[in-house]
Write a structure and sequence with these properties.
The protein contains 10 helices and 7 strands. By secondary structure, it is α/β, with parallel strands linked by helices.
Length: about 240
């Protein structure tokens, strides 16, 4: 998917990028490839593949969730900035917070945020478990996202404490989610969430199937969650 095809494919979904936004995506790609030579940010570096499997893939969230309003979004375990930075470029009205545990990635993200001149976008070097216990951010976001960084039961414990009542957590998954979803129901319920839907679709150019698992925050998360660093991964909330 070259940049022009990327622009046209998004327009078909009602997302119209202007020349400044297209220039930001180009700068983001150049930064990604440049930094990737000195640190491991992505295994995908071919331009057309990055536009499809990182940029377009990140924006599929907006096909199924209204981002046209000013929302506070937190992206947990963002890595090289997916989906947070593509979403911020396409929807400048978003107030974006990125959390990642590796400082080298945060350095890259801060450089990208500065060079792309993204306002109301900040990156934090922190564990999801400790960030979720920070009262400055806990239960303060309209939307939390995570893109395939762990199993759903674990992601729920990372993300739901950050979402305010009435907000949503959307997990972006590549693999089939039936088993993960069944396994995660206990965690979702205990963390104050309610499963809404699992949206399955395929990326263009036979680039694979994707799932968006949407969970709504119905009740406040008990204060004991998220548990101490490492415990959600080691002992997920599974019945």
């Amino acid at each position: 998917m070259n940049p022009e095809d990327f622009k046209l494919a998004l327009a078909e979904q009602g997302i119209n990028l202007n020349s400044q936004q297209m220039a930001q995506f180009d700068s983001y790609y150049q930064l990604l490839v440049s930094w990737n030579e000195k640190m491991n940010l992505t295994a995908i570096t071919d331009r057309d593949e990055v536009y499809l499997k990182h940029f377009y893939d990140s924006l599929t969230l907006a096909f199924h969730h209204d981002l046209s309003q000013p929302l506070r979004l937190v992206d947990v375990g963002s890595g090289a900035g997916f989906p947070a930075i593509p979403l911020k470029i396409a929807f400048p009205n978003l107030e974006v917070t990125i959390v990642d545990s590796l400082n080298k990635r945060i350095n890259f993200l801060n450089t990208a945020i500065a060079e792309l001149e993204l306002k109301n976008c900040q990156a934090f070097h922190d564990r999801a478990e400790t960030f979720g216990q920070n009262n400055d951010y806990r239960a303060s976001f309209d939307l939390a996202t995570a893109r395939a960084v762990a199993k759903l039961a674990v992601l729920a414990e990372f993300c739901l404490p950050l979402v305010k009542k009435g907000g949503s957590f959307i997990a972006m998954k590549a693999a089939k989610t039936d088993e993960e979803l069944a396994e995660a129901q206990f965690a979702i319920a205990n963390l104050g969430g309610k499963f809404i839907e699992d949206i399955a679709f395929s990326l263009p150019d036979e680039a694979g199937q994707r799932h968006l698992v949407k969970i709504e925050k119905r009740k406040e998360t008990p204060n004991k969650y998220p548990r101490r660093p490492g415990l959600p991964m080691k002992k997920p909330l599974i019945k």
